[in-house]
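Researcher: I'm preparing a figure for a lab meeting and need a structural model of a single chain. I don't have an experimental structure, so a prediction will have to do for now. The sequence is pasted below. Please return the structure as tokens so I can convert it later.
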Amino acid sequence: MICANREKTILLYYGELPKDQIKAIEEHIKSCEACQADLKTLQAFSDASNMTPSLSVSQKILSYAAQKNYSNFGLKEKIFAYAFSFALMLLFVWPLSKNEYNLVSSNNLESAISDIENEISDIKYDSADFTESQLEYKISISKVEKLEEVFQEEK
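Model: Understood. Here is the structure written out token by token.
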């Protein structure tokens, strides 16, 4: 059975229910088995999908990173880091920075406009054809109905 207050129960679980409605819904949940079941289901899904590491693991990682001294890189490591960064920029950033945003050049503008106009006229034609087909269908249905009436009268 689904309760009328199911949405409010879900909002309460996620902490998004307005404060003025919290006490009323909490009292309702105490007496409503459907809402209690919804809360148990939400908790089960939350427990099953909780993939975040524990706080202690996060703290261990951060403390290890804080203890490491990364300022002792020598000249060789710094040059390597700059070269690697530059190579990545050449591979990924530079090809995207070429004039790819100008999809229609000024020379082809008239051609592009005529292509768009042709597509619009094709859409209008298809729409008119569809409307005509609908009209023909309605006419044929009315003819069939008239024939059925005639057939019924002949019986």
